[in-house]
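We store sequence with structure; for instance:
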Amino acid sequence: SRLKMSAEEILVRPVQLGKDFCLYFDELECDALCKEKTLHRVLRNVNSQLLVVRPDLNVAAFEDVTDQEMQSGKGMHFSIHCYKTTTPLAGMPVAFSVQVENKSYYMCCERECGEMTVKFKEGEVPKEIPGESNIIFFKKTFTSCCSKAFKFEYSMERGMFLAFEEEGYLRKLILKKLSTDEVDETMKMSL
């Protein structure tokens, strides 16, 4: 009888373990993101122009920047916050923030008049993101043969990428739908 009991005990334990393991596994599976590292970079487009954020004008655009302007660096030195992910296939999850006049602004996407627009809002990027977030982009290599350039896919609307659009003299930062198998140079960015 004693032997039988200990055999039962042995049987029970793995089940407990199994349960715990599952719970832990479920938590891991959820798309919670936690910040792993931060890169400090400028973002350049295919014309070697730098992305400059001007919160006062509520605009972000790629511009020709002189070395002198770059040193003062208002609104062009980005922090690229890289998050750990449980689903690496989509690309590295990143969020962007930028300092302007001692204030921090983060990039996010919002629907405005039926169109997705890129906005910069005052505030900090969170250390942890529990689920989906309108500040997360997936960093992917631009093409398989071009590993130095990237494109950034909006996490909440797949197939939408950061790009620029000519608007008068402005090369404005926008979200743009990528048609399948198309190589769109306006989405190409180097860090």
Residues 2-29 form the longest helix (28 residues). The CA atoms of residues 137 and 154 lie 5 Å apart. The chain has one domain: 33-190.
